Amino acid sequence: MYNFDKEINRRNTNSIKYDRNNIQNSRIIPMWVADMDFETLPEVKEALIKRAQHGIFGYATPTNSYYQAVINWMKARHDFEVEKDWIITTSGIVTALKLAVRAFTQVDDKIMIMKPVYYPFDASIKLNHRTVVECPLVFENDSYTCDFELFEKTIIDNDIKMFILCNPHNPIGKVWTKDELYQIGTICQKHHVIIVSDEIHMDFVYKVNKHIPFYNVDESFKDFSVICTAPSKTFNLAALQTSNIIIANEELRKLFNEEKDASGVTDPNIFGLEACEAAYTYGAKWVDELLEYLQGNIDYMNDFLKTRLPDLKMVNPQGLYLIWVDMRALGMDKDELEDFMLNKANLWLDEGYIFGTGGDGFERFNIACPRSTLKRALEQLEKAIRQRG
Ligand SMILES: Cc1ncc(COP(=O)(O)O)c(C=O)c1O
């Protein structure tokens, strides 16, 4: 049994989650950026130590055993058949999104995203001088859906060239079903829209939900889509900057590789390669136990909110370790809410509004932490809300 209850001090470790903004108040609990407060599995640590002890850190390249580990993981966990030639390593998925934007579209082209969504989608488009077009998700009866008529109309009206899908969807915790993905795919196919499917959270799904890799929905979807995967969320390896972009279509792969070459960020990180291979080779049991632990955290938070803070409505997560909470009943505007969370509840969260349309009045909690930390965080929140009256 792995011990996810262990509290580990992360302050002053160059951790963006703990050390950014130089926040000195040690009562503030960081629950914002999506990395976990858990140690990764022992085999990953051992692989990294072994590599460090080798002492030579020249240019790196993925070996056959690296590719095989990626292929095996995708097959075993997701019944996803990946061919070695389809895999392109990049130094992260946000990097890959930016490369995809440049590789598959032209300046001023329109790219569609569903809001609220992981905010770097928006930035990846705008920073590359393309235009963001939104298709807002519909929030009804505590869950989110896509209005497919609106989805298609938005594509037609704006001559959309590319759509960035988030599956599972951050921040709302939605795991798209095969039927929904089929509708997304067929509409995009009909209107010649390239799909970039960001599946970084693929390993975090709960209960009856199942992650469906976009290529598994329909064979023909391989012709016009790209799947972004990484071990970084699953095994807490974000700083090792290694992801695997899967592109079956030769033409798209060529365009992507050319853009990667042009950008100059081509050499993989040697420690990232080692860690990814070890994680995908030895990590299945660790992930199974992690998911059980996270489900325990989700249940704990759900019970806490229901019984002690019933005005706050948690959107029941089908996937991810990020919990999306509707706080509109508190009646605060976005600045008040942000100030209240940080300075009264002493919680450093991701504010709903940063995820765009539909995010105001929501907060995103990262619950990938020991239960003791989660308990403390929710008690701090309860106390602050009671004091407010
Ligand atoms: C949907 C999504 N994509 C990408 C990333 C970041 O990926 P990377 O660190 O590989 O750039 C995150 C991190 O939270 C995410 O939630």
Task: Describe what you observe in this structure.
There is one protein chain. With 389 residues, the protein is an alpha/beta fold. The chain has two domains: 16-40 and 284-388, Alpha-Beta Complex (Aspartate Aminotransferase, domain 1); 45-282, Aspartate Aminotransferase, domain 2 (3-Layer(aba) Sandwich), CATH 3.40.640. It has 13 helices and 15 strands. The strands form four sheets. It has a seven-stranded mixed beta sheet, with helices on both faces. A four-stranded antiparallel beta sheet has the order 11-12-15-14. Helix 3 crosses helix 10 (270-282) and helix 4 runs parallel beside helix 5 (120-126). The chain is globular, with a radius of gyration of 21 Å. The N and C termini lie far apart (43 Å). The structure holds pyridoxal-5'-phosphate. Residues 34, 92-94, 118, 166, 170, 198, 200, 230, 232, 238, 243 line the site of pyridoxal-5'-phosphate.
Chain-wise SSE layout:
Blueprint: H1 16-19, E1 29-30, H2 42-54, H3 64-78, E2 87-90, H4 93-104, E3 110-115, H5 120-126, E4 131-136, E5 138-140, E6 143-145, H6 148-158, E7 162-166, H7 178-190, E8 194-198, E9 225-229, H8 232-235, E10 243-246, H9 250-263, H10 270-282, H11 284-308, E11 313-314, E12 322-326, H12 334-344, E13 347-348, E14 350-351, E15 362-366, H13 371-388
Parallel strand pairs: 1-13, 3-4, 3-7, 7-8, 8-9
Antiparallel strand pairs: 2-10, 5-6, 9-10, 11-12, 12-15, 14-15
Helix pairs in contact: 2-10, 3-10, 4-5, 4-9, 6-7, 11-13
Bound molecules: pyridoxal-5'-phosphate.
The site of pyridoxal-5'-phosphate has 13 residues, from helix 4.
